[in-house]
Design goal:
The chain has 206 residues and is mostly helical. Helices cover 51% and strands 11% of the residues. The protein contains seven helices and three strands; from the N terminus they run H-H-H-H-E-E-E-H-H-H. It has a three-stranded antiparallel beta sheet. Helix 1 (22-53) runs antiparallel to helix 2 (59-81). The longest helix has 32 residues, at 22-53. The chain is globular. The structure holds manganese (II) ion (MN).
């Protein structure tokens, strides 16, 4: 069974400053993301033990652990590649056309996505996803690491709204964190993910 591993970041920990500090990036990647990787591997190992022993008494807990930790691993793996430190950018080409088509305008999309991020009760993510059933972009409010989204939707842009993602830099002022995020989105990555999702080659991970 393949073990999950922590992916390298495509940039230095300091690359996203001043929008996200190197200290947050280091803790978030090397500690938080690592813990999700370890948790997912651990859940799979315990499931294998349960099959071997025939004792499935803890299976509900293990299934929840797998959903949470594998969700965390996937979410962070996408999130890191959704960002860049080269400077502010706006969507162009296919991704810009798709945003206009499904949300009316880039400004309307940003307002919708920002409201979803700001409205999360507890921990979660704002997610722009391709829905292959309706063949359209949708914005989802992901609870924790794994809940409140539909099976089969393919995430193309994710913003981590857990407090560990911003509290050292922004304390309780999460609106400033969300506003800063728009300066560091890697729209080329979002474009690549959208193109792959539309082709049915999900490009879930880099
Ligand atoms: Mn996180």
């Amino acid at each position: 069974m393949a073990a999950y591993t922590l992916p390298e970041l495509p940039y230095d920990y300091s690359a996203l400053e001043p929008h996200i500090s190197a200290r947050i990036m280091e803790l978030h990647h090397s500690k938080h993301h690592q813990a999700y990787v370890d948790g997912a591997n651990n859940a799979l190992a315990q499931m294998a033990e349960a099959r071997e022993s025939g004792n499935f008494g803890a299976i509900n807990k293990l299934e929840k652990d797998l959903a949470f930790h594998l969700g965390g691993h996937v979410n962070h793996s996408i999130f890191w590649t959704n960002m860049q430190g080269h400077g502010p950018a706006t969507p162009e080409g296919e991704i810009a056309s798709a945003i206009d088509e499904f949300f009316g305008s880039y400004d309307a999309f940003k307002a919708h996505f920002t409201a979803v991020a700001m409205g999360i009760q507890g921990s979660g993510w704002a997610v722009l996803s391709w829905d292959p059933v309706g063949k359209q972009l949708v914005i989802q409010q992901l609870f924790d690491q794994q809940a409140n989204t539909a099976q089969g939707t393919v995430p193309v842009l994710q913003l981590d709204m857990w407090e560990h993602a911003f509290y050292l830099d922004y304390q309780n002022v999460k609106g400033d964190y969300v506003a800063a995020f728009w300066n560091i989105v890697d729209w080329n990555n979002v474009q690549d993910r959208l193109a792959a999702a539309r082709n049915g080659t999900s490009l879930l991970l880099p």
